[in-house]
From TrEMBL:
Gene3D superfamilies: CorA soluble domain-like (3.30.460.20), Magnesium transport protein CorA, transmembrane region (1.20.58.340). It is found in: Cell membrane. The chain crosses the membrane at residues 268-285, 297-318. This is Magnesium transporter CorA. Its main location: membrane. The keyword Transport applies.
Length: 324
């Protein structure tokens, strides 16, 4: 599955034309082409490698998914590896979709393993900012990177909201089990670790693109890339702070469990002391030897009175001390 676009002098002229005609269309120095390959085959890579003169190491990285987000510079083109993310808020599970990007002076090629990342949003951004299309490859890369980074920001924000709900679960009066809090915390922590793994290296990618030595981003597009870089920094720092917050939640959960256990033990100890009184009294009166009141009705009354008075006294004492 391939999708193509042709811009000439900053104006969209053609879409979905055959890949084989790219070289012919690039004969005009004012033409800029975007090509998207979804689930590419070896034949697709051979074709674009021949058409665009791509380095075999860059092609190898694009074929073997699972790369770290990075920017590799070759003699006449760049290779960028990046990730789109999606968060299932109900499960707290983060999924990623890797995207490889070849960038030559007049061609941008995006390579996707699957269609989980919908490029329609990227295309919509290009169309909404058509006045910037005259800046060619820098314009195309900006639309793609801006969409990816905004996805990182949206995932971080949703994770933040999920962690706020977990904080509420910690102090809901015991209506939520500690196991549920711990399980939810570990799910969010795993998603945060995965998000950090794909979001943090994007700082290097965007920062490298803005270097004058690459001759990719000109002065007019520099503020737009700076805005993307600011979002990258914010997403990275937000991810780091949320990771610390998850650790704090886990530690707080253990502390709350310990406090609840201490309270339960205190209550059990109080009730055990109260129960020990009638046990001691009835045990004394159950001796097989004569004692004051043995065989008399007032002896029974005396034992009941002692039991009730001492039990009530202990209950009142423990209640005042907030042990019960």
């Amino acid at each position: 599955m391939a999708r193509t676009r042709l811009y000439r002098n900053g104006v969209l002229e053609a879409e979905d034309f055959p890949v084989e005609t790219i070289a012919e269309r690039l004969s005009d120095d004012e033409a800029v082409v975007w090509l998207d390959l979804c689930k590419p085959t070896q034949a697709d890579f051979d074709l674009i490698s021949e058409e665009l003169g791509l380095h075999h190491l860059a092609v190898e990285d694009a074929m073997k998914f699972g790369q770290r987000p990075k920017l590799d510079r070759y003699r006449d083109h760049l290779f960028i590896s990046a990730y789109a993310v999606q968060l299932d808020g109900r499960l707290g599970r983060l999924t990623t979709s890797e995207i490889g990007v070849f960038a030559t002076p007049r061609v941008v090629v995006t390579v996707r393993r699957d269609d989980r990342f919908d490029l329609e949003e990227v295309v919509a951004r290009w169309d909404d900012n058509a006045d910037l299309a005259k800046y060619g490859v820098a314009f195309l890369l900006h639309g793609l990177l801006d969409t990816l980074v905004d996805g990182h920001m949206a995932a971080v924000e949703e994770l933040d909201q999920s962690l706020e709900s977990v904080e509420g679960m910690l102090f809901d009066g015991g209506r939520t089990s500690a196991h549920a809090v711990q399980r939810r915390s570990f799910q969010l922590r795993r998603s945060l670790v995965m998000l950090r793994r794909v979001a943090l290296p994007m700082r290097e990618v965007v920062n490298a693109l803005m270097r004058p030595t690459l001759h990719v981003v000109g002065e007019p597009m520099l503020p737009y890339y700076q805005d993307v870089y600011d979002h990258v920094l914010r997403a990275s720092e937000w991810t780091e702070s949320l990771r610390d917050l998850v650790t704090t939640i886990l530690e707080t959960n253990l502390t709350v469990q310990g406090n609840r256990m201490n309270l339960i033990m205190k209550q059990l100890t109080g009730w055990a002391a109260i129960i020990a009184v009638p046990t001691a009294v009835t045990g004394f009166y159950g001796q097989n030897v004569p004692y004051p009141g043995f065989g008399k009705w007032w002896g029974f009354v005396a034992s009941i009175t002692v039991t009730v008075v001492m039990s009530v006294a202990l209950y009142i004492t423990f209640k005042r001390k907030d042990w019960l």
